[in-house]
Specification:
By secondary structure, the protein is of the alpha/beta class. The protein folds into three domains: 214 residues, FAD/NAD(P)-binding domain (3-Layer(bba) Sandwich), CATH 3.50.50; 119 residues, FAD/NAD(P)-binding domain (3-Layer(bba) Sandwich); 135 residues, Enolase-like, domain 1 (2-Layer Sandwich). The protein is 27% helix and 25% strand. β11 and β12 form a beta hairpin.
Length: 506
């Protein structure tokens, strides 16, 4: 039986760890059951952004009327858009060719299954036939995740779209005339933006009371208001049955509050109801790797699983499913596998940022207001609208209008930044400086004071602990959108700050 020093499952972020093993001359194996490059390159963030940008341009051309310019979108060249998208996905072919020439690497194209301690077989994806059997000294599970398909009656009898087959055999030759999206999270929001801008009649079905529930309630409401201008939004509605009739796909909905039922129909259905672990396909329990109640692989702060010499990174551990978070984990995992035992590093997730590339765009880092309070923080919040700064007004954003984006900051009583949330143009760019600030320095203890009110801000602050003081002391380019976030701290309002009582002695 073949035995490898390093076995990596998944050719996305797993390649980062694998490359080090290859460079060290170790005998390595890579297992991949789809295209090389993982979700981000072949069926996720990169190709989807090639579709998002044209949709952004369409919406911005419509918004331009607010500043006195009218554009007509005369032609949407879907073939060119698709060609540019496939050019990115097809980079996986070059990756596969390159990997096949490495002498100390064996690439297995198929589904890996653990059969015992550090022992694995690989099966052909199509035929389920076993064609390889080997052992490994160290395993890195970077197997990603797949679309969760909710238990909808009749779903197995119809064809439907997921993000996997969309960037494959189901990619449309032209935008659909009508589309039902089941789910209201990140993937749903981005696809709804893309296709509504392209002229598709989009209906979002979400069983929860609001869209993008990972975000602040104010951001969910702002997104919903702006979505409703271009598509149909059905909240508190659960898809319970689907079927086809006369070339249309019918979805039976049941209201989660009233139990009332109704039917909606469209040319196509996209399932975007969340993600599911691939640990069940790997049969990780056969090698002693534990999963949580939802099937995600459990890892400790060093990214080690419950089985010695088996690590897990990226979407496979279910924590913050974004490529940049996976890259961060790969760097730490690489250090912990190949570096000295006494120099192991642990992961830290308090400042994980992300963006939802919908319209309006959303940027997020750290805690929401509710999360901060639940974790026992005494907090201030600060909000500021785009329309309140010169650049925002210049871009056509005015007070009281539904498209007037904003920033919301969550700050603790020592002025440490706990979270930053932006919705509006360039939200991903505007939230990024807060990521840097939150990662600057470490928490330090503050001296007790009999009267907090007597201390100046600068005295109550620990600048090296991720506070907003560097913004407070910095110049902000004027006029720029940076003023929306930079000046927000002038609007700090206490939410649950406990003021100390004065003692009176008579």
């Amino acid at each position: 039986m073949e035995k490898y020093d390093i076995v990596v499952i998944g050719s996305g972020v797993g390649l980062s760890v694998l490359n080090v093993g290859i460079q060290m001359g170790m005998k390595c194996a890579l297992i991949e059951n789809t295209k090389m490059g993982g979700t981000c390159l072949t069926r996720g963030c990169i190709p989807s952004k090639v579709l998002v940008h044209p949709a952004d341009l369409i919406r911005e051309s419509q918004h331009a009327q607010k500043v006195g310019i009218k554009f007509n979108v005369e032609n949407i060249n879907w073939d060119l858009i698709a060609e540019r998208m496939w050019s990115q996905i097809d980079e996986s072919n070059m990756m596969e060719q390159g990997l096949s020439t490495i002498p100390n690497l064996k690439v297995y194209k198929g589904i890996g299954e653990f059969t015992g301690d550090y022992e694995m077989i690989v099966k052909d994806t199509e035929s389920d036939r076993e064609f390889a059997h080997f052992k490994g000294k160290k395993f890195i599970i970077a197997s990603g995740a797949r679309s969760f398909i909710p238990p909808i009656q009749g779903i197995e009898n119809i064809e439907y779209i997921t993000n996997e087959n969309f960037f494959g055999k189901k990619f449309p030759k032209k935008p659909w005339k009508s589309l039902i999206i089941i789910g209201g999270g990140v993937i749903a929001a981005e696809f709804a933006h893309i296709f509504s801008a392209m002229g598709t009649g989009v209906t979002i079905v979400e069983m929860l009371p609001r869209l993008v529930v990972t975000e602040e309630p104010e951001i969910s409401r702002h997104l919903e208001k702006n979505f409703r201008k271009h598509m149909n939004i059905l909240l508190n509605e659960k898809a319970v049955q689907v079927y086809e009739k006369k070339g249309q796909k019918i979805v039976l909905l049941k209201n989660t509050q009233t139990s009332e039922e109704k039917e909606i129909k469209a040319e196509e259905i996209l399932i975007a109801a969340g993600r599911k672990s691939n640990a069940d396909l790997l049969k990780v329990e056969n090698t002693g790797v534990e999963t949580d109640e939802k099937g995600w692989i459990k890892t400790n702060s060093y990214l080690e699983t419950s089985k010695k010499n088996i690590w897990c990174i990226g979407d496979a551990n279910g924590l913050y499913q974004f490529r940049h978070k996976a890259n961060y984990e790969a760097e730490i995992c690489t250090n912990n596998i190949f570096g000295p035992e006494n120099q192991k590093r642990s992961v830290e997730y308090s400042a994980v940022p992300w963006a939802i590339f919908t319209y309006p765009q959303i940027g997020h880092v750290g805690m929401t207001q509710e999360e901060a309070i639940e974790k026992g923080h005494e907090i201030f919040i600060a909000m500021k609208n785009y329309s309140t700064v010169a650049k925002g007004f210049a871009m056509g954003y005015e007070p009281g209008q539904e498209d007037d984006g904003f920033v919301k900051l969550i700050v603790d009583k020592s002025y440490r930044i706990l979270g930053a949330h932006v919705i509006g143009p360039h939200a991903a760019l505007l939230v990024q400086p807060f990521v840097y600030l939150m990662n600057a320095g470490f928490t330090c203890s503050l001296p007790e004071s009999k009267d907090d009110g007597d201390l100046l801000k600068i005295q109550r602050t620990c600048p090296e602990a991720g506070s907003f003081m560097p913004i407070y002391h910095s110049m902000v380019i004027h006029p720029s959108l940076n003023e929306v976030t930079g000046w927000a701290i002038g609007n700090l309002k206490p939410i649950n700050i406990k003021m100390k009582q004065h003692e009176h002695h008579h």
